[in-house]
Structure prediction request, 71 residues.
Amino acid sequence: MITDEQLNEYRLSGQKVRVVRDALPENDVRGIIVAWDETHVLVRRPNRNMVKLDRNYLIQSAKDPRPSFEE
Prediction:
């Protein structure tokens, strides 16, 4: 789970993040961190829609390469 400090860093910098939900890249959510609580993160997508996601998903900078799920 991502820490509050990391989420606050992303929010203050306005840096785009990638939320990896499963092995399919087309299911990733990209956007800007807006808010969070103990269990969820609110991400604003480029089309200005808000998405509420679980904090247990992998949240990383959109600039970083996507992790591989191949075995």
